[in-house]
Amino acid sequence: SERKAPLRHGYVVLENDRIAAVGQGTPPTAHWDSVVPGRGRVLIPGLIDGHTHLASPAGMPLPVPPELRPLAAAYAEQLPRSYLYSGFTTVVDLIVFDRPFLDRFKASPIHPDLYDCDGALALANGYPMALDPKEKHWDFFPNFLWDPRQRDSIPARFRPDDHTPQATVARVAAEGGICVKTFEE
Q1: Which residues pair with 182 in a beta bridge?
Q2: CA–CA distance from 92 to each of 138, 148, 173, 178 (Å)?
Q3: What is the C-alpha separation between 78 and 70, in angstroms, rounded?
């Protein structure tokens, strides 16, 4: 990607799952475990899908109704392979609302690298919290941001100090999130 033009008649040497050399012409002499001929093909870096919601089967309602669960299970089993088949070697899930789903994705025999932003930072009772049933959205968005205009509708079990931007970002980092997903209203 740093080149102005494609490297034609090139080679890539991998050692211990790392790129050890890239060049043009004949690769350095050595004993190779395997050689993949690429004549007439294009080699590109792995793609990154930086905006996924892996546990949401496209086009299916949430929660998934019983009659669609076999289809959702087949989707979940195929999903890691489909990403790789399409050239994606890394995916980033922006809102983790089903950690076991992501754990199963990572446990697949072959799968792209998976990173996540843990729970999104939604403004209390704002988008997308407002789309969920009121009795559920506090559980769906535990990293919500305190909004003093909403204090009368926020359950008493939550403390304002636990829902500042600093506190919620610290929680995301503690859970292993590599990014922060928030919403502009």
Answers
A1: 121
A2: 23, 32, 15, 9
A3: 12
Cα separation, 90 vs 111, whole angstroms: 9
Q: DSSP labels for 2-30?
A: -SSS--TTEEEEEETTEEEEEEESSPPP-
Exposed/middle/buried for residue 180 (C-beta within 10 Å: 0-12, 13-18, 19+) = middle
Residue 114 has what pLDDT? 98
Name the pLDDT band for 161 (thresholds 50, 70, 90): very high
pTM: 0.79
pLDDT score of 48: 96
| DSSP assignments along 99-143, one per residue | HHHHHHHHHSSS--EEEE--S-BPBTT-TTGGGS-HHHHHHH-TT
Buried b (16+ CB within 10 A) or exposed e, 57-90: beeeeeebeeeeeeebeebbeebbeebeeeebee
